[in-house]
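2024-03-11 09:14:02 INFO worker-7 job=invfold-0412 stage=load source=structure_tokens
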């Protein structure tokens, strides 16, 4: 069994590649929920939906998020009425948010709702939220705290980042299935996807007890760098790193995950950083990490699985 920590579009691409290579049910995908928020009275779970749609073969291939071929009649009508339209919801995508909100208000847990959605969409691997309890990623900037979706979408990631808070994290319980996977004697490896560490991975690691459990793991833990050639593959990560006084490089990513990693997959462009990563007691692996086609997603998954085998995770 392979356990994956992920969030965002890039992480979902690698998850798809892994899903194509692993037997159904052998992959447990723990998804960040720190960027979940309420909009237009609906509970929106961007990372969960991106992973779910991607594995179901329904994701928009151009954006990586939302549904392929969706229409925008609802948003057009909302705009005519002067509604709050900064976060766009497609017509078919809207059904997911409406049904999720309805079930949450009925008292169902987010994990149970997610499992039901995945079953309905024929997703054969296990996709779980990091917690059934709400956590909100807040961006600190110029003495104020900005909800992450406001920062990313409404404000187009323009505010200068001074730090992050994960509101509610101290009271959030890791999803039981997440804890079970960590303790499973059949666990062969933990993969940290090529996701933004600050807003996709660290909220998961910050859950009570998770960093300690990861530190005591028996299976190898490997990350894939989301930085290639000094730039983020997608999103504002490079900008965030610079504003926080860090270089935009795989070395900075390894430093952020200090004490957790056994290995890191970096792009061939960054081959010159092998020694700097190895100096952090992290074994570097070189691969083509840019994923556009499904073939490239599977190829990177193969490289990650081979690296796991080198680290002693029984894959190769």
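2024-03-11 09:14:09 INFO worker-7 stage=emit residues=316
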């Amino acid at each position: 069994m392979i356990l994956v920590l992920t969030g965002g579009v890039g992480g979902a691409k690698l998850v798809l590649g892994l899903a194509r290579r692993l037997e159904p049910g052998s992959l447990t995908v723990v998804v960040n929920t720190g960027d979940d928020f309420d909009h237009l009275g609906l509970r929106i779970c961007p990372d969960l939906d991106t992973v779910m749609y991607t594995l179901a073969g329904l994701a928009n291939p151009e954006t990586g998020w939302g549904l392929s071929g969706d229409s925008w009649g609802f948003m057009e009508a909302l705009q005519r009425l002067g509604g709050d339209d900064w976060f766009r919801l497609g017509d078919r995508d809207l059904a997911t948010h409406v049904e999720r909100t309805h079930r949450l208000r009925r008292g169902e847990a987010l994990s149970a709702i997610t499992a039901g959605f995945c079953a309905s969409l024929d997703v054969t691997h296990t996709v779980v939220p990091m917690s059934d309890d709400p956590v909100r990623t807040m961006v600190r900037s110029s003495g104020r705290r900005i909800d992450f979706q406001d920062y990313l979408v409404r404000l187009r990631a323009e505010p200068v980042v001074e730090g992050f808070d994960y509101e509610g994290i101290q009271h959030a319980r890791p999803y039981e299935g997440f804890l079970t996977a960590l303790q499973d004697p059949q666990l062969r490896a933990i993969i940290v996807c090529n996701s933004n560490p600050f807003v996709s991975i660290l909220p998961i690691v910050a859950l009570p007890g998770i960093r300690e459990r990861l530190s005591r793991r028996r299976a190898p833990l490997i990350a894939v760098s989301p930085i290639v050639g000094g730039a983020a593959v997608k999103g504002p990560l490079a900008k965030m790193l610079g504003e926080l006084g860090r270089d935009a490089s795989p070395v900075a990513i390894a430093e952020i995950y200090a004490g957790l990693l056994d290995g890191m997959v970096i792009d061939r462009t960054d081959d010159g950083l092998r020694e700097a990563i190895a100096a952090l007691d992290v074994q570097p692996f070189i691969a083509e990490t840019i994923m556009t086609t499904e073939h490239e997603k599977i190829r990177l998954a193969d490289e990650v699985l081979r690296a796991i085998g080198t680290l002693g995770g029984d894959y190769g």
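2024-03-11 09:14:09 INFO worker-7 stage=report msg="The chain has a mean pLDDT of 96."
2024-03-11 09:14:10 INFO worker-7 job finished
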